[in-house]
Design brief:
The chain is mostly helical. The chain has one domain. The longest helix has 24 residues. It is globular, with a radius of gyration of 18 Å.
Length: 157
């Protein structure tokens, strides 16, 4: 939150090295993964996210992913079974940039499985970056961007 709320622009001034390391931001994402993260953030905000906000929001997303990975890895390994199970949104479960990417970066030999439920209307859609995908029908056909940015009714949420 500190990174996002400060409105940090990574291009203008580098963050403190200790803060970067603390949130797993000391290594950049592969360029394709960074580009897809940026695009996903813009799309999730109905194309209305100012360009100046994309960098700080991407850093905040990456910090959340790192924190999920750090806590998953901090659990003591039991004699049998998985060390931990993380239930998170599909973006955080991506193997190319989410928590699994951070786990692999820290412990390359650690076995992990990333599973996602992905809504689709096209059964031939290319599988996104997960170890396993369960394609589901779209649960809600409402256009969530239709009223994005529109003035709210007085007293409305």
């Amino acid at each position: 939150k500190k990174i996002a709320f400060a409105g940090h622009d990574p291009a203008s001034a580098p963050l403190d090295a200790q803060l970067l390391a603390r949130f797993g931001l000391d290594a950049p994402l592969p360029p394709a993964a960074q580009a897809s993260l940026d695009a996903d953030l813009v799309q999730a905000h109905c194309g209305m996210l100012p360009a100046s906000a994309v960098g700080p929001m991407a850093l905040a997303q990456r910090a959340r992913d790192f924190t999920l990975a750090k806590h998953a890895r901090s659990v003591a390994k039991p004699a049998r079974g998985p060390r931990s199970v993380v239930i998170a949104g599909a973006g955080h479960a991506r193997t190319d940039r989410g928590a699994p990417w951070h786990v692999h970066r820290a412990e390359p030999a650690l076995r992990q499985l990333s599973f996602a439920f992905v809504e689709t209307t096209d059964s031939t859609e290319k599988a996104p970056p997960y170890d396993a995908v369960w394609f589901t029908p779209v649960a809600n056909e409402d256009d969530h961007c239709k009223d994005f940015g529109a003035p709210k009714e007085p007293g409305g949420a």
